[in-house]
Amino acid sequence: MATPELLAPAGGPATLPAAVAGGADAVYLGLGRFSARARAENFTAEQLGAYIDYLHAHGLRCYVALNTLIRDEELEVALESARAAVAAGADALIVQDLGLVRLLRRHLPQAALHASTQMTIHDPAQLPVLAELGIRRVILARELDLQAIAACTRTAAAAGIAVEVFVHGALCYAYSGQCLISACDADRSANRGVCAQHCRFAYRADASPPATPLSMRDLCLIEHIPALLEAGVTAFKLEGRLKGADYVYTVARAYREAIDAARAGCPFPATERRRELAEVFARRLSDAPLHGRRGPELRQTDPSDALPEQADARLLRCQRDHARALIASTRPIRAGQGFRYLDARGTIAGFLVTAATRLDAERWECRIRLPGRSPPADAPLYRNADQSHARAAHAAMATVPLPPPGPRREPLTLRLEAHVDQPLRLTATCADGRAATLSGDPVARATGAPPDTERLRAAVAALGDTAFCASRVDCECDPTAFVPLSVLKRLRRALSDRLAGMPQASPGTPWRPEPTGARERTTRLIVALADPALVPPARAAGAAAIWLTGLDLWAATPPRLRSDADIWIRHPPVCPVSPHLAALGCGVVAGQLGVLAAARAAGLPAVADATLGGLNHQALYTVHELGASGALASIECAADRFAALAGRCPAGL
Fold it and tell me: Is the entire prediction scored with pTM above 0.70?
């Protein structure tokens, strides 16, 4: 079984030790701009290098999220942010914007690119297109079931790219990247990192009581790690860049244990770990998406939905004046635990246990801190906090503290080659592209024990007080090679001196916007219809083309269309590619990249729909190069930007 990767969130520097101590293999984080979690503390470009060095020193990789849609006037700044992240040693960039993908492939080709979940990746047909664009890993939409995930991993493997899935944390009511309610209502775009979370708001219809019909439970797939590994998933992601260090440590530790147990074929206490996970955040946990269930059981429509399905304890008696409670529980109760309950008004309240004495097998006499109303008699109690988790997190984090700020050492990738009777070679490469190789005398054959590879790696990485540190060391050594450490030390010193004397290279070629020019434009009226019967009146009213929506494009037989009108099929963005596109033989308005590729393969004219994120001219160039003869600007493109965007369109679009 391939070694999977566990990714932990880092909303700010304080959570980095939590990810390290929790057993994560990688961390993903954002800079001040172009991050889908703009409300997080995030990181500055100036401090990023030191923090990446810290992660690399502990064996973790770092992925920098530049995963928002980007406007034309921001492209150069976004490219500079990407350059700064790569120069700081970032192992990959997480991106959403197709225009930024195009720029990075041309101007920063050494950067590894991961396709964000904001790209709404849900259909295997999208994956070869993303591979064609230079994507090395895709982060699937959080809404997929196990069968859909497995289908994507099979196609991804054939395309040579890895698959990452979210296994824990918040869910979006819409497919990620497709929700526009915050942008339309509050001018705060989720695709620009500033979602106002309207899905968490309470709504009422007429005189009905307020409810939260759009609020989702939190995803928890800790019981399903073996099935996901079997499905071919190579990276498991934890959501939570807005959450604290206690959360990051507790969740990472639980999933680390689950992954290791699954790989070893050992039993795993999933029920107990799920209880612990429920104690570091308040929403009810659910695995419904993995089973293809998207009904009411996935939402929190009233306060009781936020509580777990099973109570942890029951209140026998509460003496508010004496701050005491008698509680029935088969699980131990101790100071620092918090319990929630529904009060007499049907709202969630809670109290904190400050001391607990066991009376018998199930009864506990507790001192409590009760800020609100007293619980109703015989109320079910739900444990939602345990300060022991925070204490455990802080103790573990203390063993891997962040170093004090200091001069930053540049990360190097080092490679040692030791082949008998050939010169010993040591190569070093900087993040900005500087590289040097030095050779020593021919390698002799060992007369004793074979070389200790780990000892050689440690010797190569011992860069001392130079301006460099080792981020990765590769060894290619014959089993009978003899490598004197003194020779290795001399090569290492000479190599670091040579690199230090080289002028710093630009990590990429400079960017110049595509030239603008006068374009002849023709205004045409296009009408989108859900009923084919309305085509004749639309044509009579002057429609130059008809876009039909809402057709069943997946029925056993293709829909019948009029042949005397300029008919286009508007394909939804969150559905698999219709098998009937070629048979229909008409133009396609493609809502996702797989549909665009299918239309190109069938020789059909295609237009890229607004869901492909046309917010800058580089994105329009991307879809044009993928076969689109037209494109809709993103719905989030303001009216005052249309003219400038249209002026920079590629010829033929």
Answer: yes
